[in-house]
Amino acid sequence: MADAGGWRPPRPCEAYRAEWTLCRSAGHLLHHYYVHGERPACEQWRRDLASCREWEERRSAEAQRSLCESERARVQATQKHALVWTLRQSPPADWHLPLPQEEKDQ
Amino acid sequence: MAGAAGAPQQQQQQQQQQQRVACQVFPERRAQGGSGQGLLSSVFSNDQGCQRLLLKTLETNPYVKLLLDAMKHSGCAVNKERHFSCEDCNGNVSGGFDASTSQIVLCQNNIRNQAHMNRVVTHELVHAFDHCRAHVNWFTDVRHLACSEVRAANLSGDCSLVNEIFRLHFGLKRHHQTCVRDRAILSILAVRNISKEVAQKAVDEVFESCFNDQEPFGRIPHNKTYARYAHRDFQNRDRYYSNI
């Protein structure tokens, strides 16, 4: 987490509002049920929006803590499963090379 | 792939078998020694239509714009002329990613309209993205192939409710996951000469991990709104990670 002096919410408050609105929409209910077989949970977006606004208005340390905790939990949820493959340190060497056909033409 | 860890001779035989299967998918590609088309065939081909649809996809589709951005960030900037090829294909395959040439093949005789082009390009760019960011053993590990196919089916819109209904596959509760499994298996069988059971086993083994690996979207993009939100998050990632 960055120092309190330079910290700001990880997302603009409008982004939290947009996610909360999307989460509560009928379309999202349908999509979520289609994928997971249950209703979506939208309460955390509402809490994050409230924290974001509170930090904007009052620079509340509690709001900062709450937002960081919430977003770290989201990141951890995406890292639950081990990857099937090894990540690269650099892109494939031949990505930008000309096609073999082009080399023959040259 | 089953048996790939055997003697080098066996492995070489299997690799030749895999390349032969790839030939069956794109025979014209191999026969002409590459992606080029003869002068006469290009006059009567759907190449211009394919190129037009492709250009519109690259310029306007939010799924594709995010993938292009993510690939550029990973060091694999995409060049339309170098990394895409419109060709005629056998069967009803819509496209493919050729890892040996780092090229996406679009089957111009099978891509029906703009929406279909959007989906095919998204699907193949997921493969290209995986190739760019990870050591994917496309030809020697069917689990790696299965993983990329699960991701592509999951993130490209292949398995949207609407598309499944058009295929007359009716299901609602958790049907998306069933579709992703089934389409991943079909895609594997289209490019590998293995049994359905082997393909199914590979998909089952990797499903949990690969279904939940939703990079670079960070979510399943059910429609363009989700894709735009995902792109917004991607563009915001520096601020995000430095403030949590």
Automatic annotation (TrEMBL), chain A:
Entry-linked Pfam families: PANTS-like (PF11326)
One Gene Ontology cellular component annotation held by this UniProt entry: synaptic cleft
Domain of life according to the entry: Eukaryota
Cellular compartments annotated: Synaptic cleft
GO terms classed as biological process: negative regulation of long-term synaptic potentiation
Cited PANTHER family: UPF0545 PROTEIN C22ORF39
Family: Belongs to the UPF0545 family.
Protein known as: Synaptic plasticity regulator PANTS
Highest classification ranks of the organism: Eukaryota, Metazoa, Chordata, Craniata, Vertebrata
TrEMBL record, chain B:
Enzyme Commission number(s) from the entry: 3.4.24.-
GO MF annotation, one: metalloendopeptidase activity
InterPro entries to which the protein is assigned, alphabetical: Peptidase_M76_ATP23
Cell division as UniProt keyword: no
EC primary class: hydrolase
Keyword Protease recorded: yes
Any single biological process term in GO: mitochondrial protein processing
A single cellular component GO annotation: cell junction
Keyword vocabulary terms for this entry: Hydrolase, Metal-binding, Metalloprotease, Protease
Record-stated family: Belongs to the peptidase M76 family.
Protein name in the entry: Mitochondrial inner membrane protease ATP23
